[in-house]
Fold this protein.
Amino acid sequence: MSVRAIVENILISKFKLMLKNLFLIVMMMTCFLSFGQQSNFSIEANFPYTFGDNFVDEGYNGAIDIGLKYKFASYDIVDLGASLNAGAFYRDDSRFDGAPDVNGTAILFQPRVYASFKINGAPRFHPMVGLGYSFFAFHIEEKNFAGANFQENSSDDGINLNLAVAYDIAAKWFLQLQYDYVRLNARDVRKTSYNQNANILKAGIGYRF
């Protein structure tokens, strides 16, 4: 077995473990919180799709995003709440012709507050807007042109604007489409649009307790 195959197998194993841990964390939080005011909580699973002229879209593909929402206030026209999403991405070097072999993953954490609006004429639709902060954690394993292997861990963070719409398909189940814009700080790299703007589209399904 080649060195590259060994590295790929190790990365796949780490990635599967990472996804398992993310799922377990959200499930544990859900089980714990569901003993409280159950109707105020919801959980969701999404597929994240990166796009735009930026390093996140160019270097990573989405794998999964899971989220937990808590509604802490309800009014005639709007519900207010807080949410936490955790997403996983894997490195994609197919767009870098002739580049060294690079494998890696990225984890995204997104705490935020949100407002969900009520439409009298369309009670199944729920437009939402959210504001929060996003944290990226990157792990890269690379073989350079000389054949040497090395690892690198890095992180970045920034303000996150979220726009979404949910559609109720049953009493407790809903479909959801979200757009996330993240303005990263780019502390360790040049501050350009390519390094600071991240765009993520998410489509998924959710359940209200």
Observations:
- The domain at 3-208 is CATH 2.40.160.20 (Porin).
- The longest helix spans residues 3-33.
- The chain has a mean pLDDT of 83.
